[in-house]
C-alpha cells in the first residue's frame, strides 16, 4: 500500500494490492455504488474518506463543494482519472483521454461541430426516427431498454454521420454492441477472451468508419452533420481546431459510446416512471398536446417549440436524478495536494465524486425516492444537481441528449398509450457504465385512435 500522508482523510486501504475493489464491485453490482459510499461515510462520520480501488489510492468526495471543485477547477488540480483499458477501446485521441491543451483544442472542434444549427437541422430526422421506432413496437410486447438502445444508436448515427438504419449500419451496430458489452471486462488480450472480442470489434469499426470518411471526401454529403464539421479543411477551421482522421474516428466511436446507454436507459426509465404516475403523465400529455396544436397538423417540431417543453424537461431531470445513470461516479486524479473539508487529498491519488449523495439527499430533494418532477420549479441551491457533470469536461452531448429525449416523448404521448407488462420490482442490473432495471422494462404500446 502507498504511504498515507499526514492530513489524508479517514478510511482504510483494505487488502494488499486489491484494496477494497472487490467490496466496491460487489456492492456496486448488487445495489449500486451508493451503498459502498454510504456505508463508509456512516462508519467514519464524515463526507470524505479514503479507500483503495482499481489499484489506486482513492478519495471519495461528495456534496456541493465536491461539484464546485469539479466545476471551477479548469485544468488546475484535476486531471481525468482513467483506466488503462480506455485507451485500447476508445483510442488515445478520443476527447475523454486527452488532457489540458489537447483536450481544450479537441473540445473546441467537437463542440463547434455539434452547434445549435446542426442540432436544429436534425429535429426532423429525430422525429422521423421516433415515428418509425414507435410504429415497429405497435401492439406487441417489447423491452424498452433494448429498443431504446437501437433508437439512441441510430439517432446519434444520424447526427454524426447522416446514416439511417440499413443492413450496413446494423453491422456497425453489432460491432459497437460487442465493444460496449465486453469492453468493460478483464483486459486479457488473449484470443477467445471477451476483451479480445471487444478489440476486434473496435478494429472493424475503425475500418468501417474510415470508409465513411473516404466516401464523404469523394461524394460529399447532402445535409449538414457533425462529420461535415469535423472534416472541414484546415483553411476553414484554422490549424488550431483541425482534426486528423485518426482523431475524428476515435471521437466518433467515443461519442456513440458516451451517448448511447446513458440516453437509452434514461428514456426507458421515463416510460416506466410515467406509466406508474398517471397524474404526471397527464401533465406531459397536456403540454405536448398544446405544442402539437400550436404547430398545426402537418408541421414538424421546431427548435422554439422544443425549448418550450418546460414540464417535460422537468420530467427528464427527475428521471435522471432518480436513475443514477452512468454518472454515479466522476473520476479524476489529483495533480497536486488538494485541500478538502479540512483534509488533504494527496497528489497522484484518484478522486471519485459521488453524485448519488446529492441526488438522494433529503435536505436537497424532499422525499428523494419519490418521482416529483415539479420539484424542479423551485430554485435549487448551486452545485447540487449535475446530471451531466460540470466544468471543462461537462457532457459534450448534453444538448443533443435533451433534444433527443424531448422529441421522442413528444411523438410518444401524442400518438400512443403504453403499459408496463411486469410490475416494477426495482431489481437493477449494472453494466460497465450504467445501472438499469434488470427486467429490461417490458412494455406494450398502442396507437391512440384519431
Ligand atoms: C442522458 C444522457 C447523458 C448523460 C446522463 C451523460 C452524462 C455525462 C457525464 C456526467 C459526463 C462527464 C463525465 C466526467 O466528468 O468525467 C459526460 C461526458 C461526456 N458525454 Fe455525456 N451524457 C449523456 C449523453 C451524451 C450524448 C448523447 C453524447 C454524445 C452525443 C455524450 C457525449 C459525451 C462526451 C463526448 C463526454 C466527454 C466530454 C469530455 O471529456 O470533454 N453524452 N456525459
Automatic annotation (TrEMBL):
**What name goes with this protein?**
Uncharacterized protein
Task: Please give the organism.
Answer: Diphasiastrum complanatum
Lineage in the entry?
Eukaryota, Viridiplantae, Streptophyta, Embryophyta, Tracheophyta
Amino acid at each position: 500500500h502507498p504511504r498515507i500522508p499526514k492530513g489524508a482523510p479517514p478510511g482504510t486501504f483494505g487488502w494488499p494490492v486489491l484494496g477494497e475493489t472487490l467490496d466496491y464491485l460487489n456492492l456496486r453490482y448488487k445495489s449500486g455504488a451508493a451503498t459502498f459510499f454510504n456505508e463508509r461515510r456512516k462508519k467514519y462520520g464524515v463526507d470524505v474518506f479514503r479507500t483503495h480501488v482499481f489499484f489506486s489510492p482513492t478519495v471519495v468526495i461528495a456534496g456541493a463543494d465536491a461539484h464546485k471543485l469539479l466545476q471551477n477547477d479548469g485544468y488546475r488540480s484535476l486531471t481525468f482519472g482513467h483506466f488503462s483499458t480506455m485507451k485500447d477501446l476508445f483510442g488515445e485521441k478520443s476527447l475523454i483521454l486527452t488532457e489540458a491543451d489537447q483536450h481544450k483544442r479537441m473540445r473546441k472542434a467537437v463542440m463547434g461541430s455539434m452547434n445549435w444549427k446542426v442540432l436544429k437541422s436534425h429535429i426532423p430526422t429525430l422525429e422521423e426516427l421516433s415515428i418509425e421506432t414507435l410504429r415497429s413496437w405497435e401492439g406487441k410486447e417489447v423491452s424498452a431498454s433494448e429498443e431504446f438502445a437501437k433508437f439512441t444508436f441510430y439517432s446519434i448515427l444520424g447526427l454524426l454521420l447522416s446514416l439511417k438504419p440499413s443492413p450496413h449500419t446494423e453491422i456497425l451496430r453489432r460491432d459497437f454492441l460487442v465493444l460496449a458489452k465486453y469492453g468493460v471486462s478483464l483486459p486479457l488480450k488473449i484470443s477467445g477472451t471477451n476483451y479480445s472480442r471487444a478489440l476486434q470489434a473496435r478494429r472493424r469499426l475503425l475500418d468501417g468508419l474510415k470508409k465513411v470518411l473516404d466516401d464523404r471526401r469523394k461524394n460529399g454529403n447532402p445535409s449538414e452533420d457533425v462529420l461535415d464539421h469535423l472534416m472541414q479543411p484546415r483553411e476553414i477551421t484554422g490549424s488550431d481546431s483541425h482534426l486528423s482522421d485518426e482523431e475524428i474516428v476515435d471521437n466518433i466511436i467515443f461519442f456513440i459510446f458516451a451517448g448511447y446507454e446513458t440516453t437509452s436507459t434514461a428514456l426507458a426509465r421515463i416510460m416506466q416512471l410515467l406509466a406508474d404516475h398517471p397524474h404526471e403523465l397527464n401533465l406531459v400529455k397536456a403540454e405536448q398536446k398544446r405544442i402539437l396544436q400550436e404547430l398545426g397538423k402537418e408541421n414538424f417540431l421546431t427548435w422554439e417549440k422544443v425549448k418550450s417543453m418546460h414540464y417535460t424537461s422537468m420530467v427528464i431531470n427527475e428521471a435522471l436524478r432518480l436513475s443514477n445513470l452512468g454518472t454515479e461516479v466522476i473520476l479524476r486524479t489529483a495533480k497536486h495536494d488538494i485541500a478538502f473539508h479540512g483534509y488533504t487529498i494527496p497528489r497522484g491519488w484518484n478522486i471519485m465524486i459521488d453524485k448519488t449523495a446529492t441526488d438522494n439527499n433529503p435536505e436537497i430533494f424532499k422525499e428523494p425516492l419519490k418521482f416529483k418532477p415539479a420539484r424542479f420549479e423551485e430554485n435549487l441551491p448551486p452545485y447540487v444537481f449535475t446530471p451531466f457533470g460540470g466544468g471543462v469536461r461537462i457532457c459534450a452531448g448534453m444538448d443533443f441528449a435533451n433534444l433527443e429525449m424531448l422529441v421522442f416523448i413528444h411523438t410518444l404521448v401524442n400518438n400512443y398509450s403504453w403499459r408496463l407488462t411486469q410490475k416494477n420490482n426495482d431489481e437493477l442490473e449494472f453494466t460497465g457504465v450504467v445501472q438499469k432495471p434488470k427486467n429490461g422494462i417490458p412494455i406494450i404500446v398502442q396507437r391512440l385512435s384519431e
